[in-house]
Every structure is written in C-alpha cells, then in structure tokens.
Amino acid sequence: LDERTLVLIKPDAVRRGLVGEILGRFERKGLTIDAMALRGMDAELADQHYAEHVDKAFYPPLKDFMTGGPLVALVLSGDQVIEVVRGLVGATDGRRAVAGTIRGDLSLSNRENLVHASDSVDSAKREIALWFPELG
Ligand code: CMP
Is 109 in the pocket of ligand 1 (CB under 6 A)? Predict the structure, then answer.
C-alpha cells in the first residue's frame, strides 16, 4: 500500500553536512522523492508544525533550534513509507537510538536529532498540507 510521509532534514544535519548521507539512506531503501526543497521554518510554521508540542517545556528551545537555519523538507512515498521511514530514523533520543538507524549512527542529542518524520497517516496528511500545499 503506497503512502506518503513528510520528512524534515533538520538544521543540525544541514550545518553538519549530512544531507547527502541522510537522503542517500532513503534513496537506497527504494523510497521515492515526491517533493524536496531547502526551506526555512519561521515561528508561525513552527507553531503549526509542532502544534501538539507548543505547551511542552522542551518546545521553546526546540523552536529556536528549528528556526535557526535552513532545513530540507521532503515528501517520500513508498510501500508503508511512514513506518519504514520511522524505522530508518530511529528513536527520538539519539543517545538511545539503535545503531544502524540515522539517529543511532549520527546523533547524540534528544533535540538535535537530525530528522523529523510523520508518525501516522493523519499527521502525514496534515504536515504535507502545511509544507507542500501544492501536492494536494
Ligand atoms: P521530532 O520528531 O521533530 O518531534 C518533536 C521534536 O521535539 C523531536 O523530534 C525532538 O527534536 C524534540 N524533542 C522531543 N522530546 C524532547 C525532549 N524531551 N527534550 C528535547 N527535545 C525533545
């Protein structure tokens, strides 16, 4: 069953020169890039994208981080892509993420964890509409 998911290659990955490394993992897995752009997340987009986190204690520093530099936004498609991408990305906390995953191999942080990926069909729909309204 083909699905779509929204992925953000976060500002820490762009700063560290890891965009190619991360994109390569998605491509080698066999996923399709439906849309991709180097973008900035402004305060308003951050509040919309992270609507479920705006009241959490970790949100202010997360917002500073996510709005602090360019990121790469992309839409990936493929068979069960939402679950597949979350497996490739690994657990939120880079210190706990299993080796072999993007975060497990490349991040040592719970905040600067390199990648965001939609966590459900509903959040993928909402996030794709937010970042790439032209995809419908
Ligand atoms: P992401 O998948 O983009 O979704 C929410 C983000 O908040 C998460 O990745 C991390 O970057 C950040 N985050 C989640 N939990 C924490 C936490 N406990 N402390 C700091 N940052 C967090």
Answer: no
User: Residues 78-131: pLDDT tens digits?
Assistant: 999 999 999 999 999 999 999 999 999 999 999 999 999 999 999 999 999 999
Pairwise CA distance, residues 13 & 72, whole Å: 9
What CA–CA distances, in Å, run from 100 to 29, 39, 74, 83, 104? Answer: 13, 28, 22, 16, 6
Q: Check whether 103 is labelled as a binding-site residue.
A: yes
Pairing of strands 71-79, 32-39: antiparallel
Distance of alpha carbon 38 from alpha carbon 51, whole angstroms: 22
Cβ atoms within 10 A of the Cβ of 42, count?
10
Q: Is 116 in the pocket of ligand 1 (CB under 6 A)?
A: yes
Q: Is position 110 annotated in a ligand binding site? A: no
From the candidates 3, 107, 116, 127, which is the catalytic residue?
A: 116
Question: Which residue segments constitute the domains of the chain, with CATH numbers given?
Answer: 2-135 (3.30.70.141)
Virtual torsion, Cα 20, 25, 26, 31, nearest 10 deg: 130
